[in-house]
Amino acid sequence: MAALSTEVKAFIVQSLACFEPPAKVVELVKAEFNVQVSRQQVSQYSPGNAMAAKLSQKWVDLFASTRKRFQEEVSDIPIANKAYRLRVLDRMATKAEGMKNFGMTAQLIEQAAKEAGDAYTNRQKIEHTGKDGGPIESTTLTKEEYRQARQEMLEDDDC
């Protein structure tokens, strides 16, 4: 294993913090620094990994701060923005339609409809209705009615 410069180590730590898999980090290090590293060598810079048990606190802190910044700045990535994704889908659908590729156009329109309807999020619209789709009826019991109902339930459980 070649000794790595501080710059290469920082690059590896930051790449891993940005959720790059070790195999991809190996490629990135080769392209960026023309240094050959192994996946095992890269894995030594990922806190929480058994191979990183002796990782210096300096690299653990860099990993944590980079990961936090990466997760907070996801809005800076255009494709993470719904409006951007819809614009791209619109351009793609227009081009596909111009090429008379109606199957692709239909798929893109469907994908845009799902995107616009939040099909790709965890948000769900939940409607609560009462009997037969009507409003939920609310009854307010007096303290005495509540005690009586509770007593009846307790008596039924004794059977």
Number of helices: 7
- How much helical structure, as a percent, in the residues? 55-70%
Total strand segments: 0
- N- to C-terminal distance: 75 Å
Provide the low-confidence segments as ranges: none
How confident overall, as mean pLDDT? Answer: 85
Could you explain how this protein is built, in words?
The protein is mainly α and 159 residues long. Among the domains are: 6-74, no CATH class; 78-116. It is built from 7 helices and no strands. It has helices at residues 6-17, 22-33, 39-43, 57-72, 82-98, 102-116, 143-157. Helix 1 runs antiparallel to helix 2, helix 1 (6-17) packs across helix 4 and helix 5 runs antiparallel to helix 6. The longest helix is centred in the middle third of the chain and has 17 residues, at 82-98. The termini are far apart. The model has no long low-confidence stretch (mean pLDDT 85).
